[in-house]
Amino acid sequence: MRETMKDTFFRNLFLMLFLLMNVFLAIFCAAMIRQREAARKELVYQEQHNQAVAAAKLVDEKFSLVDLSAAQISAATWFPYLTSRSEILFSQIDYFERQEICQIIGNQNDSLRIARSIAVLLPYKDLAADRVSFWECEHYFSSVGLKKESFLEKLTAQLAEKYSSLVLYTNEEMQKEGNSFAVLRQLESGLSEEKLLFVYIDGRQLSNFLKNAGDNILGLVLTYEGKEIYSWNAKGADSGEFYTETIDNGLHNWTYTVTLKNETETFWNFGMLFWLIFLGLGAFMLEFATAWKLARHCERPVLALVERLGIRSDNGKSLEAIEKSWQNLYSQKEWLENAGNQYYQIAEEGFLTSLLHGTFEKESVVEHARKFSLPFEPQLFYQALLFSYLGESEKEFNDAMLHLQIACYQNEIPAIYCREENVLLLAGKRKEELESQKEQLLVLMDEKFPEMEAELYSGEIHGGFEGIARSYKEGRERQAMTKDQGQTTYYYPLEIELRMINSMKLRNFEETGELLASIRQENEKRQLHSGELGRLEQLIYEVFRRFALDMQMDAKKNYDFIYEKVGSGEGWNQLFSMLTQIRENYRQPEKSHELGWELVSYVDEHYDSSELSQQDIAGIFQISRPMVSKIFKETARMNFIDYLQKKRVERAKELFDEGNPDVILVGQQVGYENEVTFKRAFVKLEGMTPREYVKTRRNSGN
């Protein structure tokens, strides 16, 4: 066993299986204990509930005797004579019959065993008959210790409209007599409160009755119509845990709140604990053996694989040896895949290069295009876009090319990028599609990569595979022509121009003046002829002029005369003068802020025009397109495209809510030329298509 446990795979597998079995056993035991505990609590509850119901029935039996007494008295032969309003009939009750009536009432009192007194009350005669004699009502109440004035009127008021129903009544005087109370009942329905049975319950006798009824009864509260009539608590009932339950009387309008001892059954005992320990040890041993057996069965395929592969494992680390062998195989596979990908990319680049340079075999173009999954067909039109990247971050340029390709494919225009030649090759069925796509790519580059230093040269659009080479050749010629035209002998590096622009943006005009002076000093050393000097001064003038336009200065009014001096002997002095004027007229941020709100207002008014673009706005407000983008974003807190889409989608939702279900018509009304772009913007902002939105609104309306 010790040698077997040295194998890491077997040891980990065995411990995992053993742990899982212990977890499952613990869950099973917890579920069984929980189920048993729930059953025990339910059993205890049923027992206590039955005891509470039994205690309530004991008291109910006493009230049932009151009902029985009322029925016997009202059915007695002497009752009509006693309650008659005729003095002749009432006079027929002689002395002996009165003694008999008192004895009958006394027997009822004795059978109840919790009553201090029982009497028949006849308020209209001011007569009360109890076990002693016939009384006036006031004298009777005084004889039983009830001396409060108007007591009879309060009793009759309690019985109003409650025939054949027992009524409970108590007051402070009765409560002082050991929580005593009265039970009232009408003896005749037709006469309302004129014939009453009055039962004065002695609270002390009722408490003794409950005390003798059982040791488990600790308290009882009798509540009539929300008012507490009687309460009793046994000694020692103020401490410990109790079970309390409220039981409604099924016949009468009162409830019992019974308090019992909270009997608990002990779940754990010595015998139970012994059996649990015994079963736990047995389950532990069974789990150990089962986990060991399962681990051995699972280890056999691993050992067989090690033996078949001829892998040598040291110290029993079979799984580690297999993993190391697999890593070696995977490294070899990855190297082969990388080599294959490199050969594939080289072949693809070579094929694209041959197409661009026109050195391909016409018969094999379609075959090679299918091999490399390129969307080339002889009937398509092609245009080559050449990029000249002047920056330092190759990743930035590659990301830009990827975005341009994705944009083309979204418009269903195939676009293939040749990394070796920095050429993006567009293919389409019609020339108009390629021309439109080229313009969209220019706009996309300005919006997504405004600071990327890249120049674009494009050839014309031509048909067929020969058109690829022709378009590429034209683009190269334009690129070479531009470079030839730009070959000058003056000193004006791009780095200096960018530093001048940035220093002016940061209002560091001293640095701008120093840079301008250094350019002048260097070029004066070169002794440029007038043509080159004029070209240099024009370039610097255009930099200052573009900055003035971007900063909302009146360039035409203040600086046009300087342009006339450029190229003459006064050019440098005029450029320094122009820089001074720019410094003095530099717009404050508040004015730029005001212009921002003018741009936002213009978009709010013309958002439904499909022709609306940043380039149009730049032309209207006489500022550059990048400046429009910057000021608009600072003001609206979002870029131009997102704001325009949000504005259009919100208006489209309003039209849909007004009952217009035509998606295409609504899209045109808010500025979208086709449903595809409308749908794309709507899904981006609302998470659903316009048609789904219309359907949702229609269903909610129904």
Question: Care to describe what's here?
Answer:
With 702 residues, this protein is α+β, with helices and mostly antiparallel strands. It has four domains: 1-316, no CATH class; 340-483, Alpha-Beta Plaits; 494-586; 595-700, Orthogonal Bundle (Arc Repressor Mutant, subunit A). Helices cover 62% and strands 12% of the residues. The chain contains 27 helices and 15 strands. The protein has a six-stranded antiparallel β-sheet, with helices on both faces. Strands 11, 12, 13, 14 and 15 form a five-stranded antiparallel β-sheet that branches. The protein has a four-stranded antiparallel β-sheet with strand order 8-7-10-9, with helices on one face. The longest helix has 68 residues, at 8-75. The protein is elongated, with a radius of gyration of 54 Å. The two termini are 75 Å apart. Residues 484-488 have low confidence and may be disordered.
